[in-house]
Each structure stands twice: as C-alpha cells, then as structure tokens.
Amino acid sequence: MTITYEWRGDFDNATVNVLHAEGFDHPTQDFDWLTRVQHHSLGWVCARDDGDLVGFVNVAWDGGVHAFILDTVVTGSRRRSGIGAALITEAARQARKAGCAWLHTDFEDNLRPFYFDACGFEPTTAGLIPL
Fold first, then answer.
1. Residue 13's domain spans which residues?
2. Pairing outcome for strands 3-7 and 66-74
3. Cβ–Cβ under 8 Å, residues 32 and 23
C-alpha cells in the first residue's frame, strides 16, 4: 500500500460526497465540494491509493494566521492505518508554509486520541454556540 498525499489536489465531488457520508454517517448528499473549498479554504489534502481517494481534509482559514481543520475523513476500510494523521501533518505543513501561526480543530470526545495523540494537537479552552 503506497498512499500519496496531494495539497489542493483535484477530486470528483461525487467521490468526496460518498467519502464524507461514510465518515460522518449521513446519507450521501450532492454538495459542490470543489467550488466550496476553492472559494473558502486555504487548501485541502487528498489521500490516494492507486488513484482512489481514500482520505480528505479541508483547511479553512481567516486569511491571516489562523487555519482550521474541517471534515477530516478516511474511508472505513483504511482507518487506523495512519492516513488521517498524515493528512493532518500535510495540512499543518502547508498552513505553516502559507504563513499561518495556528492550526485549530474541534472534534467529538471519542476523537481525542486521534487529534491529541496521533496528530499532536494540544488541549485548549474554546467556546461554541450551537446555531
């Protein structure tokens, strides 16, 4: 298994919609991911195995020094193999290269080991208003 990682890689919307639905346990939707990330994100990372998309992460930003990890997802059969952590590593590298000083994320409690242990995020105090 040789996984490749591509910053701002090309992808098919339908493939990301299927991957996202599987990863976040919801019905497949018809979002235009490519237009969305091109307009609102610093970039994104695609993980591929022999051309097949097996992982994806979106890196949103404030146009300055803050970048934000969103929609980290790895196909079910490839989880717990290091692909997710490698997606975050590449996202962090590219955000740093773009001049960002901070990489933020939020996540559900069951993902603490992934984000803190595997990816190196540090706990912080944050706030949230559900809308």
1. 3-118
2. unpaired
3. no
Rounded-to-integer distance, Cα 97 and Cα 29, Å? 33
- Here the CATH number for the domain that contains residue 73 is 3.40.630.30
**123, part of any domain:** no
pLDDT over 80 at 1, yes or no: no
Are 88 and 46 within 8 A, CB to CB?
no
Question: Is residue 85 within 8 Å of residue 73, measured between CB atoms?
Answer: no
Closest CA to 5 of 33, 41, 44, 39: 44
Give the residue-averaged pLDDT of 58-83: 96
Task: Collapse the DSSP code of 73 into the 3-class scheme (helix H, G, I; strand E, B; otherwise coil) and give the result.
Answer: strand
Is the predicted pLDDT of residue 68 greater than 80, yes or no?
A: yes
Angle, helices 33-40/13-24, rounded to nearest 10 degrees: 90
High-pLDDT (> 70) share of the chain, %: 99
Task: Examine residue 126 and state whether it is found in any structural domain, yes or no.
Answer: no
